[in-house]
Design a protein that fits this description.
268 residues, alpha/beta, nine-stranded mixed β-sheet, globular
């Protein structure tokens, strides 16, 4: 697909700790941030992605940029700013610490580049001022994820006409969402409800980002809401079974989607 999409979101280094005994724990270090995960997944799915974010000139920022470049991801619009690159730490799949660092600073948007895009994704990892400014100025459809921070209210809709608002059940208690992510219970879009498998899988961090990417990709392909929602639920659940980092899930999304579509085509 030659569709161009602007993604505005956070960049973090993720540290995952699995296990209960200090000398026997597994420690995984990877690039992360929901904005980055969504951008990378959409890149894997074949969209032309322009990702706008902040890192710092430190060891975490250098690690993140070097790895993304090695993976063939366009980092030209990730801005290096004074401060510290964001850090996220989880223990046995539960977030225990977040240091936002330069994600608290406004994101620099190249509006000439963004003007070439008909679609955009943004989330609350970035400053509220960045979100409001982007909604006021972008000309096209915006997918706005109300997470991970609960900093938005319903008046955000007044800033942009063509907006699809996505969030999990907790986030959507504060704001009226179009699409609600319900974990093992699936997801709903207005009155449309797609049930999940009801199971607690071991690696859920980043599954909401996979959900967003698959939903957006499917809709931009012209698929109807039910099909897009079904695929988003199924792929995000599959990703939670074996991929320990959020970026690993984003890297695998194309294969997971192709496997799911093959299964759908052979089912009676």
């Amino acid at each position: 697909m030659s569709i161009k999409i602007a993604v505005v979101g956070g960049s973090f280094v993720d540290i995952y700790i699995y296990g209960d005994e200090p000398h026997r724990c597994e420690v995984v270090e990877d690039c992360g941030g929901s904005g980055l995960n969504v951008a990378f997944a959409l890149h894997q799915l074949g969209l032309q992605v322009f990702f706008f974010s902040n890192v710092a000139d430190d060891h975490r920022g250098n690690f993140l940029l070097n790895k993304l470049q090695q993976l063939g991801f366009d980092t030209r619009h990730i801005t290096t700013k004074d401060g510290e690159t964001g850090l996220h730490i989880s223990f046995n799949d539960k977030t225990i610490a977040v240091k936002r660092g330069v994600n608290d600073l406004d994101v620099d948007i190249d509006w000439k580049v963004v003007s070439e895009c008909s679609f955009a994704f943004i989330n609350t990892e970035v400053s509220k001022r960045t979100i409001e400014n982007f909604l006021k100025n972008f000309q096209g459809k915006i997918f706005l994820d109300a997470g991970p921070r609960r900093i938005l209210s319903d008046d955000i809709r007044s800033l942009h006409e063509d907006l699809i608002l996505i969030g999990n059940e907790s986030q959507c208690e504060r704001i009226s969402c179009d699409v609600v992510k319900m974990g093992p219970s699936g997801a709903r879009w207005d009155e449309l409800h797609i049930t999940g498998d009801g199971l607690a899988h071991p690696y859920t961090t980043g599954c909401g980002d996979v959900f967003d990417a698959v939903l957006i990709f499917s809709l931009l392909k012209g698929e109807e809401r039910r099909v897009a929602l079904e695929k988003a639920v199924k792929i995000s659940q599959e990703a939670s079974k074996s991929f320990k980092s959020a970026l690993a899930k984003a890297q695998a999304v194309k294969d997971l989607l192709e496997d799911a579509e093959a299964g759908l085509s052979t089912s009676p």
